[in-house]
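User: Hi! I have a protein structure encoded as tokens and I'd like to know what sequence might fold into it. I'm fairly new to this, so please keep things simple.
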């Protein structure tokens, strides 16, 4: 009973939710104790997952059910759905938490949803197999990456029109802005790189490359990323390389590789950025990285094929 009260309280800033793609569940992790406190059954193939801005709900894209389910954090159960369109994968909210932008992999669109009304507002046609989603700090530009077209699409959020396309390396999976809007990072799974894009000029300005002794280049597959709030350090999940690259975000040079679980996919900071949690699909666990020490301090078993992770807002 005490646990339930704690989870429902505003102090739930220490709670992480992990989508388990094959298990069709969401694992709830208490980051004070590093334990799974609950496993929530959801729809088929959960992937993209994110807290609403107010911290009251968790949204999870269940791709094989063609919808986004809404988990009530206080009840820790699915209470509603959003009309996402076919095969939703990743999504992003606007700053106010009112509008949701969803990548629909199967029909090459980004669906726009009014969260409160649970209503679809429209869609934007993008490239083939859209996945990565990001929104600029000022909320004016939406980014979508298309895996097969190998582009980052710049979408004006007011007109809902594509205003620029930037070519990146093969199979772009994720996009992340620096907080000061100085750079956009796009990971390319097959290309094995992260492209650095100038968001104002809308052109590529550089690349982050990776090399791990003893591993073939094709085993190094960048996917999820996280950049510290001060913009000084970036972390890149390298998929089947089972490592997270630590990147000097000013020089774009890799400073360290951290060995984590098998097939590391996505990651999320705790609100104070003391810890970074990664989802490891093949080993069915989450690695906890101490950011100051730059080392893995804990492994937490979760469900089958963990994919996405989201942290409660402070």
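Assistant: Happy to help. Inverse folding works backwards from shape to sequence: for each of the 314 positions I chose a residue that suits the local structure. Here it is:
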């Amino acid at each position: 009973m005490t646990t339930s009260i704690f989870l429902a309280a505003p102090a739930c800033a220490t709670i992480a939710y992990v989508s388990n793609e094959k298990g069709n569940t969401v694992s709830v992790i208490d980051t004070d104790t590093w334990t799974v406190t609950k496993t929530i059954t959801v729809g088929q193939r959960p992937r993209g997952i994110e807290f609403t801005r107010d911290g009251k709900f968790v949204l999870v894209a269940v791709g094989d059910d063609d919808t986004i389910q809404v988990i009530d954090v206080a009840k820790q159960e699915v209470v509603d759905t959003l009309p996402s369109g076919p095969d939703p994968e990743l999504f992003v909210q606007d700053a106010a938490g009112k509008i949701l932008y969803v990548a629909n992999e199967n029909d090459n669109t980004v669906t726009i949803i009014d969260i409160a009304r649970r209503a679809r507002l429209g869609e934007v046609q993008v490239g083939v197999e859209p996945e990565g989603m990001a929104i600029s700090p000022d909320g004016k530009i939406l980014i979508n990456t298309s895996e097969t077209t190998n582009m980052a699409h710049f979408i004006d959020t007011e007109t809902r029109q594509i205003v620029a396309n930037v070519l990146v390396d093969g199979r772009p999976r994720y996009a992340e802005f620096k907080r000061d809007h100085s750079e956009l990072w796009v990971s390319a799974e097959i290309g094995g790189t992260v492209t650095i894009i100038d968001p104002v000029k809308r052109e590529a300005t550089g690349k982050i490359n990776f090399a791990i002794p003893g591993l073939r280049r094709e085993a190094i597959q960048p996917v999820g990323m996280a950049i510290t709030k001060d913009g000084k350090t970036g972390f890149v999940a390298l998929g089947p390389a089972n490592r997270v690259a630590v990147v000097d975000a000013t020089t774009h040079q890799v400073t360290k590789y951290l060995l984590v679980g098998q097939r590391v996919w996505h990651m999320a900071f705790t609100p104070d950025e003391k810890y970074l949690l990664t989802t490891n699909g093949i080993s069915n666990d989450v690695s906890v990285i101490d950011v100051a020490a730059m080392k893995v301090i804990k492994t937490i078993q979760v469900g089958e094929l963990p994919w996405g992770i989201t942290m409660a807002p402070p």
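A useful reference point when you look it over: The mean pLDDT is 95. Feel free to ask if any position seems puzzling.
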